[in-house]
C-alpha cells in the first residue's frame, strides 16, 4: 500500500515527505495506522549522524500511537481496530531478559531492530523500488508502519492518541526512571539535569514519589517556568555560577543529592550529575544518549565512597505489561501529558518540530497525519 512518510534519506539533511510503499505484515507482524507521533531528541540524534546504529534511508519516529489495520499470520493478541502504542523495547515474555525479572530490555527482536530490519531480516518499506529502513522497530513518521506483535502495547480505545503517544517514549522514560530505576523514596532530594521532555517527566515522577526537594538544572533559562510548574523546588543555570555545578549543588544540599538524573546526553554533565550525589549513598541515573565515541569518566574514588552510577532505558518499563496501566493513569489525570505538548503540527511540517527542539522552544511537538 501507499503511505505518506517523512523519510530521513541522509544524515544531517531535513526529512522529505514522500509517498512510500508499505508491504503487508508477515507472520508475527502488525500493520498500524499511526494517527499521532511525538518527536523525541533521540530522533534528532539519529538524524544528526551521531548514532552508531543510524542507518539511511530510514523512517524515523518512536513516540507514536495508532490503530491496528491488519495482522499477519499467527498474531493472536491484536486485531484490526485495536488502539496501540509501538514499543522500541519489545516484550516477548519468553527471552532470558524478559524472564530475568531484572530488566525491561527484551532482546527477542533487538538485533534486527538495530539494523533497521524486521525480525526476518527484511524491510517492509520501499521508495521508487529501493529499500527504506525501519527505525527502533517503530518508524512512527509514516502514516502506515509495520511492527512486530511483541512491540505493540494494546491500550484503552477511549484514550486520546494525540496525547498518550507521548507515553511511547519521553513521559514513560522519565517517570519510569524515577520509580523503576532509582526507586526514589518520599523525602528524597533529587537533581534533574536537562529540562526537556525527559527531564520534566523525571520531575513529574519525583513529585509522585513525594521527593522533598527537586533541583532542576538547565543552561536555557526559558525552561525554568514549566519546570517549577511541574514541581521543581529550585532551578539552577550552571552559567550563573563560577564554580562547577556539582559543587554548587553539594553546597545547596548539605553534601549532595540522594538521586540525580542526566536527561541531556552530555558526558561532561553525566560526570557532574554523579559528582553532585551524596557521599555514601547518592545514585545517578543516566538517561541521555551520548554520541558515537563519547565516554564517561570520573575519579573511581567517587564510586569507592558510595556513589552509584546507573542507566535507564524506557524507564525500565515493560511495555506490553505496564504501558496500558500508565495510559489509564493518564486518563485519570494521575500522569499529566498536557504540559509537555507545546506544539502540534501536520506531518508536512515535521522539520519545524526539529527546528523548535534545536532552538530550545519546544518540549514536545505532536505530529498528526
Ligand atoms: P530535549 O532536547 O527536549 O531536552 C534537553 C534539555 O537539555 C534542553 O532543555 C537543553 O536546554 C538542556 N541542556 C543541553 N545542554 C545542557 C547542559 N550542558 N547543561 C544543562 N542543560 C543542558 O531532549 P529530550 O527529548 O528531553 O531528551 C533528552 C535526552 O534523553 C536525549 O539525549 C535523548 O536522546 C535521551 N532519551 C533517552 C531515553 C532512554 O530511554 N534512555 C529515552 C528518551 C530520550
Ligand atoms: N543506538 C544508540 C543508542 C540509542 C539509545 O540509547 N536508545 C535508548 C532509547 S532512546 C529513546 O529516545 C534505549 O532504550 N536503548 C536501549 C536499546 O536497546 O536500544 C547507540 O549508541 O548505538
Ligand atoms: Zn525517545
Ligand atoms: Zn523478551
State Rg.
Answer: 20 Å
Largest sheet: number of strands, sense, barrel closure? 7 strands, mixed
Write down how many β-strands occur, each being a DSSP E stretch of 2 or more residues: 17
- What is the succession of H and E elements? EEEHEEHHEEEEHHEHEHEHEHEHEHEHE
Enzyme class: oxidoreductase
Organism: Dyella mobilis
Family: Belongs to the zinc-containing alcohol dehydrogenase family. Class-III subfamily.
Domain Enoyl reductase (ER): 12-367
Q: Which terms would index this structure?
A:
369 residues, alpha/beta, 7-stranded mixed β-sheet, 6-stranded parallel β-sheet, 12 helices, 26% helix, 23% strand, binds nicotinamide-adenine-dinucleotide, binds ligand AHE, binds zinc ion, S-(hydroxymethyl)glutathione dehydrogenase, ADH-like_C, NAD(P)-bd_dom_sf, zinc, NAD
Write the layout of secondary structure elements.
Elements: E1 2-7, E2 16-22, E3 29-38, H1 41-48, E4 64-71, E5 83-86, H2 96-100, H3 110-113, E6 125-127, E7 130-132, E8 144-148, E9 152-155, H4 161-164, H5 170-182, E10 189-193, H6 197-208, E11 213-217, H7 224-230, E12 234-236, H8 245-252, E13 259-262, H9 267-275, E14 283-286, H10 300-304, E15 308-311, H11 319-331, E16 341-346, H12 350-358, E17 364-368
Parallel strand pairs: 10-11, 10-13, 11-12, 13-14, 14-15, 16-17
Antiparallel strand pairs: 1-2, 2-6, 3-4, 3-8, 3-17, 4-5, 5-9, 6-7
Helix pairs in contact: 5-6
The protein binds nicotinamide-adenine-dinucleotide (NAD), ligand AHE and zinc ion (2 copies).
Ligand AHE binds next to loops.
Pfam families: ADH_N, ADH_zinc_N
Organism: Dyella mobilis
Protein name: S-(hydroxymethyl)glutathione dehydrogenase
Amino acid at each position: 500500500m501507499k503511505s505518506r512518510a517523512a523519510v530521513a534519506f541522509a544524515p544531517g539533511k531535513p526529512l522529505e515527505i514522500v509517498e512510500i510503499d508499505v508491504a503487508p505484515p508477515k507472520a508475527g507482524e502488525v500493520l498500524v495506522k499511526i494517527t499521532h507521533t511525538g518527536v523525541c531528541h533521540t530522533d534528532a540524534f539519529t538524524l544528526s549522524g551521531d548514532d552508531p546504529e543510524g542507518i539511511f534511508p530510514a523512517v524515523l519516529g518512536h513516540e507514536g500511537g495508532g490503530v491496528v489495520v491488519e495482522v499477519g499470520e499467527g498474531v493472536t493478541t491484536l486485531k484490526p481496530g485495536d488502539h496501540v502504542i509501538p514499543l522500541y523495547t519489545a516484550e516477548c515474555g519468553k527471552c532470558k531478559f524478559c524472564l530475568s525479572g531484572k530488566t525491561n530490555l527484551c532482546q527477542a527482536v533487538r538485533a534486527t531492530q538495530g539494523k533497521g530490519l524486521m525480525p526476518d531480516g527484511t524491510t517492509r518499506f520501499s521508495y521508487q523500488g529501493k529499500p527504506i529502513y525501519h527505525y527502533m522497530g517503530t518508524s512512527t513518521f509514516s502514516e502506515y508502519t509495520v511492527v512486530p506483535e511483541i512491540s505493540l502495547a494494546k491500550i484503552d480505545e477511549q484514550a486520546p492518541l494525540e496525547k498518550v503517544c507521548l507515553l511511547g517514549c519521553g513521559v514513560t522514560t522519565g517517570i519510569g526512571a524515577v520509580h523503576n530505576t532509582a526507586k526514589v523514596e518520599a523525602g528524597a532530594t533529587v537533581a534533574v539535569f536537562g529540562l526537556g521532555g525527559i527531564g520534566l517527566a523525571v520531575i513529574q515522577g519525583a513529585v509522585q514519589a513525594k521527593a522533598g526537594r527537586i533541583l532542576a538544572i538547565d543552561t536555557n533559562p526559558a525552561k525554568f517556568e514549566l519546570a517549577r510548574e511541574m514541581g521543581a523546588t529550585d532551578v539552577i543555570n550552571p552559567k550563573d555560577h563560577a564554580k562547577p555545578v556539582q559543587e554548587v549543588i553539594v553546597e545547596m544540599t548539605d553534601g549532595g543529592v540522594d538521586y540525580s538524573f542526566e536527561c541531556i546526553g552530555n558526558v561532561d554533565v553525566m560526570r557532574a550529575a554523579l559528582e553532585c550525589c551524596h557521599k555514601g549513598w547518592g545514585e545517578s541515573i543516566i538517561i541521555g544518549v551520548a554520541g558515537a565515541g563519547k565516554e564517561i569518566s570520573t575519579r573511581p574514588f567517587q564510586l569507592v565512597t558510595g556513589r552509584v552510577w546507573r542507566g535507564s532505558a524506557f524507564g525500565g518499563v515493560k511495555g506490553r505489561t505496564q504501558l496500558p496501566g500508565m495510559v489509564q493513569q493518564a486518563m485519570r489525570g494521575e500522569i499529566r501529558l498536557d504540559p509537555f505538548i507545546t506544539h502540534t503540527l501536520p506531518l508536512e511540517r515535521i522539520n519545524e518540530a526539529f527546528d523548535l527542539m534545536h532552538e530550545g522552544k519546544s518540549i514536545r511537538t505532536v505530529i498528526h497525519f
